[in-house]
Design brief:
Blueprint: E1 15-16, E2 27-28, H1 35-41, H2 47-53, H3 59-74
Antiparallel strand pairs: 1-2
């Protein structure tokens, strides 16, 4: 996914921002994994591979995050 598109994660239930945690960047809930780690790799890896790469994500959650990112980037 292009680095030039910044995703508004506000309405994604799997992503959160926590003040003081990873400098307040959008992260996967309950982890310290940046949302951008998922989106930067989603075109090159399957959800299963991303779950292996970032333990604790869960394949279903990876799929939801990818779906959200793709829907967000298609909006006019």
């Amino acid at each position: 996914m292009s680095d030039s598109i910044e995703i508004d994660w506000t309405n994604c239930p799997d992503i959160e921002r926590v003040a003081g945690k990873v400098s307040g960047q959008p992260i996967v809930k309950g982890t310290r994994i940046l949302a951008t780690c998922v989106t930067e790799n989603m075109d090159d890896a399957t959800p299963e591979e991303l779950d292996d790469l970032f333990p604790g994500l869960g394949v279903q959650r990876v799929r939801r995050i990818i779906d959200y990112a793709r829907r967000y980037t298609r909006q006019p």
